[in-house]
Amino acid sequence: MKQLHAAFIPGIDTAENLSGLSAALDLSGKHAINNLLWTKSGYRPEVNFVIGYTEQGIALKYFVKEQHTAAVYTTANAPVYKDSCVEFFIGFDTDGSYYNLEFNALGTALVGYGINRHNREEIPRAKVEKIKALSNMSLADGDATLNSWELTLLIPFEVFIHHHLTTLKQRGCRVNFFKCGDDLPEPHFLSWNNIPTADPDFHLPQFFGTLLFD
């Protein structure tokens, strides 16, 4: 299983300073989401992410280049996985439970909690709307050029309603990162840590990697 580290980002004192957070994340090393799963077309968007943390929550930035981009949903907990979607799954405990956090290119979020893909608990919309997002999108004029978009996210501790988090310093977690787009002209499924199964399913915590907050 893969392992990565998330560094503390000092000096970001307010969730309103997303441009500063985005610039700080640019100084971190990128990690590729490049395991192409469950499709035979060979279509593989170029997807990378960086991750860190602040005094307020988890800081995450995605970098995407793809042929087709859609961002239809604008309401928290809408089915953003049908759009151009990046996802972050994280489990803080050893009981198998984890949060799924899914975002379209606009930053619209869907967040749930549970131990597998079935019977997941939807995190209240009021909490999900606390997530701060900064989207930067550049759409191509023709098929010869890829669409490009970046998404910076600050996920406050209060989103994780089943855990009383005040800091992540020196904490280890189970994670995976994904890219999908169920309703795009070329549906695709990509993961950071590989999922060696025949049936499509991101909700397999046994294939999560490890994230260590420094």
From TrEMBL:
Pfam families: CBM9_2. Residues 30-213 form the Carbohydrate-binding domain. One of its GO terms (biological process) is carbohydrate catabolic process. GO terms for molecular function: carbohydrate binding; hydrolase activity, hydrolyzing O-glycosyl compounds. This is Cellulose/xylan binding protein with CBM9 domain.
